[in-house]
Amino acid sequence: MKTINKSSKLAHVLYDIRGPIMDRAKQMEDEGQKIIKLNIGNLAAFGFDAPEEVQLDMIRNLPNSAGYSDSKGNFAARKAVMHYSQEQGIKGVTLEDIYLGNGASELISMATNALLDDGDELLVPMPDYPLWTAVTSLSGGHAGALSVRRESGLDPRHGRHPPQDHTPHEGYRGDQSQ
C-alpha cells in the first residue's frame, strides 16, 4: 500500500496548547484537581447560551433548515445578530454586514484564506487563540506577534500602538509562561 504523506503546509501549524501552563494544568489534574478548560471554545458547556430571540428563531425556522441557507447565513439568525448589535450601541450594522458560519473556526479559516496571499503577514494579538496562527500558516501567511499586554503600550481606543518587533515567526505559541 502506498504511503500518503501529509502536506508540507502543515509543517508550521501548531494548534494545541502546550508549554509551562499546560504542564502545570496536567500536573494539577493528576493530583485530582478539577481543571476548567476554557480553551476548547465550547461556551455552552459553561452556561453561555444563545440569546432567547435566537433560540426562538431557530425553533421557528427548524422546518425550513434541512437544506442550505443563504451564503451569508440564516436570515432570522442574522437579524437577531443585527438587533443585538443595535442593543449594544454598535451603530451602522445592517443585515448585509453580517456573515454567519458554523463557529469561529470556520469563519477565521474563510477570512484568512480570502484575505492572505502567500508570504503576507498577519499581526496576531499575543497570547493568541491558537487557531489564528495555525490558519495563517495554512493560508500561506506568517503570523507576527502583536503584544496586547498592558506594558506594551497598545491603546486600541485611540488606534495607537508602540513600535514592536513584528518579525514573522514559525509556529509562535505566545507567552504561555504566566
Automatic annotation (TrEMBL):
Gene Ontology molecular-function annotations: L-alanine:2-oxoglutarate aminotransferase activity
Signal sequence annotation: none
Coiled coil spans: none
The entry's keywords: Aminotransferase, Pyridoxal phosphate, Pyruvate, Transferase
Annotated SUPFAM superfamilies: PLP-dependent transferases
UniProt cofactor(s): pyridoxal 5'-phosphate
TM regions (residue ranges): none
Region annotation (Disordered) ranges: 152-178
Transferase recorded as keyword: yes
EC number in record: 2.6.1.2
Source taxon at top rank: Bacteria
Transferase recorded as keyword: yes
Enzyme class per UniProt: transferase
PANTHER family per record: GLUTAMATE-PYRUVATE AMINOTRANSFERASE ALAA
Similarity remark: Belongs to the class-I pyridoxal-phosphate-dependent aminotransferase family.
Protein name: alanine transaminase
Taxonomic source organism: Achromobacter agilis
Originating gene: alaA
